[in-house]
Amino acid sequence: MAASSSAQAGDALRWQRIRTIENPWVRQGLAALAVVYLAWSLTTLEINWTRVADGLPRAVNLVLRMFPPDFSRGSLLFRGTLESVQMALAASFFGMILAVPIGICGASNLVPKPVYLAARAFIILSRTFHEIIVAIFFVKIFGFGPLAGVLTLLVASTSFISKMLAEDIENMPPGQLEAIRATGASFPQLLVYCISPQALPRYLGVSIYRLDANIRHSTVVGIVGAGGIGQVLAASFSRYDYDFSLAILLTIISLVFLGEFFSNWVRNQLR
Amino acid sequence: MTASQHAAKHPEVWRRFSPRQTLLRYTWYLGVVAVAVWSISALDVAWFFFLDAHVQALDMATRMWPPELGYFRKVVGPLIETIHIATLGTVATVLVAFPVAFLASRNTTFNAVTWFIGRFILVASRSVNTVVWGLLFVAIFGPGPMAGIWAITFRSIGFLGKLVAEAIEEIDTGVVEAIEATGASRLQVLWIGVLPQVLPVIYGTTVYRWDINIRESSVLGFVGAGGIGIVLYAAINQFLWQEVTVILIAVFGVVILSEFVSAAVRRRIT
């Protein structure tokens, strides 16, 4: 207040930009830090600049070799895409089911502390590691193929949906909970009559969103051999079949677009 | 008719749904289950793998424990590289995503064609996973962090651009009109009228994406695009499971830390 009034006294007509960080020292200090960081990171990274300079003609070459996209191996493309979609569907379905108990266990207002901590530990642990790391372990345990992919997506979906569900339950107003408890309801009755009506719309919305995310992720777990279109894509890349790669990429883009469209449509219906 | 007789004849059982709603609901349930069953059965899952899964898992767990603690020193370098890839990629993203977001929002784009181009860039960027972008850029720039930075950038443009474009579509048009009324050029309107309004969204989304990018860049090395993924992939391929444990612990620590930092920054901004 004091600063603005003195500024007004100085030159009343001067317009001042609205700043997110008001203190100029902090603002410029952060900018200086950013510059120092950029300099430091660019010098420590081992970037082979001559190789990077070669990149431009290579990129042109790559793009030239990608066109026109080669859709001639349609059946391979179709099977891979179908497998990805099936992996996404199966993982979303079982993820939805598994997320309910874990989500309930992760809500601090419903369960005792040790159960809460165990559920939260699972959620944090599986959220931290990228799908591909999880996929590698499942490939080691279950062998190559879509099973490892489904399990990977299943872990990711479960932890995502259960995290959202747990937070939703924790944010519920305590009134309804107390009211149902006061009628002498048992824990299962509490879940059916108090929690589920309040949590259901958002839970369904999150699950549908996850289906769409699973379609996106199912295209990539194949890179480490966990099935789906990603496996076909990685193979085409390693064989330098770039025109086929572009066909796969275009298929993935349209698939993701459709999935997103479907997910938005369903979520609008739910609202 | 006494009250109890009446109650017996006309049971007033409270029902939440009408029969029609119930039928519709069960049709939905049936449909969802049918889709799930179809997708599982069509995948031709090799169920016998489940038979020895617990043996395999136990075997791996015993090989992974205890972590080879001396290996931590060798992990620090790749770990810093991972953070650099994520950060530089995010910085580059902001520079590119911002103009694309202007193209992709209805109220700042030039015409239908530029709007469509903007939207297409956003969708294409988001549809292709970071690792797939990594494959592409390793083919272009050769293995190394440069490919990783590009991969992170190309994937994040769609994420950041989409959210910023949505924010631009919801800005206060009064401010924009006021600036236009002063005779400002188009660029000045964007710079003074639009940008300050969406800046908090840009900051918040950027920090959020940075934290996601840390996680993404931890696996970019699997396709040769630099970072700790290279070390992890090498350790896995050489069956050095105790080193794998060390790397996983390191990745876990960094990801948790970045998530914490990002959440703290976002709390300050919004």
List the helices and strands and how they pair.
The complex is a heterodimer of chains A (271) and B (270).
Chain A: H1 2-10, H2 24-44, H3 49-66, H4 74-105, H5 113-128, H6 131-142, H7 146-170, H8 174-182, H9 187-218, H10 229-238, H11 242-270
Helix pairs in contact in A: 3-11, 4-7, 4-9, 4-10, 5-7, 6-7, 7-9, 8-9, 9-11, 10-11
Chain B: H1 3-9, H2 19-42, H3 53-64, H4 72-104, H5 112-127, H6 130-141, H7 145-169, H8 173-181, H9 186-217, H10 228-237, H11 241-269
Helix pairs in contact in B: 4-5, 4-7, 4-9, 4-10, 5-7, 6-7, 7-9, 8-9, 9-11, 10-11
Give an overview of the whole structure:
The complex is a heterodimer of chains A (271) and B (270). Chain A is mainly alpha-helical and 271 residues long. Chain A has helices at residues 2-10, 24-44, 49-66, 74-105, 113-128, 131-142, 146-170, 174-182, 187-218, 229-238, 242-270. Chain A has a single domain, classed as Orthogonal Bundle (MetI-like fold). Chain A starts with a helix and ends with a helix. With 270 residues, chain B is mainly alpha-helical. Helices cover 77% and strands 0% of the residues of chain B. Chain B is built from eleven helices and no strands. Chain B has helices at residues 3-9, 19-42, 53-64, 72-104, 112-127, 130-141, 145-169, 173-181, 186-217, 228-237, 241-269. In chain B, α4 (72-104) packs antiparallel against α9 and α10 runs antiparallel to α11. The radius of gyration of chain B is 27 Å and the shape is flat. The interface between A and B is large, with 63 and 62 residues.
